[in-house]
Specification:
Layout: E1 6-9, H1 16-23, E2 29-32, E3 35-37, E4 41-43, E5 51-54, E6 60-63, E7 70-75, E8 81-83, E9 86-88, E10 93-98, E11 104-106, E12 109-111, E13 123-128, E14 134-136, E15 139-141, E16 150-155, E17 161-163, E18 166-168, E19 175-178, E20 184-186, E21 189-191, E22 198-201, E23 207-209, E24 212-214, E25 221-224, E26 229-231, E27 234-236, E28 243-245, E29 251-253, E30 256-258, E31 265-267, E32 273-275, E33 278-280, E34 287-289, E35 297-299, E36 302-304, E37 311-313, E38 319-321, E39 324-325
Parallel strand pairs: 1-2, 2-5, 3-6, 4-7, 5-8, 6-9, 7-10, 8-11, 9-12, 10-13, 11-14, 12-15, 13-16, 14-17, 15-18, 16-19, 17-20, 18-21, 19-22, 20-23, 21-24, 22-25, 23-26, 24-27, 25-28, 26-29, 27-30, 28-31, 29-32, 30-33, 31-34, 32-35, 33-36, 34-37, 35-38, 36-39
Length: 326
């Protein structure tokens, strides 16, 4: 039986963290002391279930100096934890997860990931073809330049949880979900991004719960997918719509949608449920159902002071029932 170890790392070698990974066994903890590290750390399939932890949160810095591609790459591995690092000045991403599962990415700060001009779109964290990962309490800001670069991307992945993160002032979106299923986005603050707060494309059964989405340059939430649920969120002061559905069978329930520069809720699809929302002071109607869309259910919402109308229905046979229109 192998005895589990705590491997201590200090910034006295250009490959200090990578060397610790090479020597680690399953279940070991790599405890990284404060200082600045210029590394690209790769964790591969023979290194399952290791923990890489900053001894002092965000005082342990990985700095790519604008020449290294990524701080951490988790490739074909399971159960890795990365906790408490400050990551900056890499080219492609702060943390990349590929073909893996059950990772925990906790309480990191990631910024200044710039990409390659005209060629590469950078991300703070990117998850590709992976299952069951937790991204929690990370702060991801200033990713990309000139409309290239988003805070988090989930691509062809399922069962991931994005919980309690801050996604601020990124050059494109706060969170992108593409070609995924059964993911949850819960309790995040998503603000000041230069495109959408959250965009969901061809990704069904996404839960978006208790998020704050404000001051994004386009829409708060743009859902181009089916069977997504936007619940108990505050969606305010976005320069586009608060929320837009372009495919069928989505739900918005008990959200506060206020002061958006376009519609509070824009519907360009059928069979959506809009229930118990508070929709106020939006600039291009509180709820705008576009032609020719049908069979949307609008029930027990409160609409107040939206311009020019609280509800504008250009579709046919939509059920608009028991709403309060002040």
């Amino acid at each position: 039986m192998i005895e589990l170890a705590i491997i201590k790392v200090f910034p006295n070698s250009p490959t200090a963290i990578q060397d610790a990974v090479a020597s680690a066994n399953e279940g070991d903890v790599i405890l990284v002391h404060k200082g600045i590290y210029h590394e690209n750390v790769r964790i591969q399939s023979d290194k399952n279930n290791i923990r890489i932890v900053a001894k002092q949160k965000r005082r342990t810095v990985l700095d790519g100096r604008r020449v290294l591609l990524e701080a951490f790459i988790l490739d074909g591995v399971a159960g890795v934890e990365i906790d408490g690092f400050k990551i900056k000045n890499y080219i492609l991403s702060g943390i990349r997860i590929m073909n893996g599962k059950s990772h925990r990415i906790l309480e990191n700060e990631i910024s200044e990931i710039r990409g390659i001009k005209g060629k590469v779109k950078p991300f703070g964290i990117i998850i590709n073809q992976s299952v069951g990962n937790l991204l929690m309490r990370n702060k991801i800001k200033r990713i990309g330049s000139v409309k290239k670069g988003s805070g988090i991307q989930l691509s062809s992945s399922m069962g991931n949880w994005i919980v309690g993160n801050q996604l601020l002032n990124n050059s494109l979106c706060g969170i992108e979900v593409d070609l995924g299923f059964h993911n949850a986005i819960v309790g995040n603050r998503i603000s000041g991004n230069k495109s959408e707060g959250i965009t969901i494309s061809e990704s069904n059964n996404t839960l978006i719960l208790e998020n704050m989405l404000n001051h994004n340059s386009k829409n708060g939430v743009f859902a181009r997918s089916t069977n997504n649920f936007i619940i108990d969120s505050k969606i305010k002061d976005n320069h586009g719509n608060g929320l837009i559905f372009t495919l069928n069978n989505n739900m918005a329930f008990n959200n506060e949608i206020k002061n958006n520069h376009q519609s509070g809720i824009a519907i360009l699809s059928d069979f959506n449920d809009i229930q118990c929302n508070k929709v106020e002071k939006n600039k291009n109607n509180g709820l705008f159902i576009h032609a020719p869309h049908t069979a949307n259910f609008v029930f027990e919402n409160r609409f107040k002071s939206n311009k020019p109308q609280n509800i504008k229905d250009q579709g046919t046979n939509n059920n608009i029932v028991q709403n309060n229109r002040d």
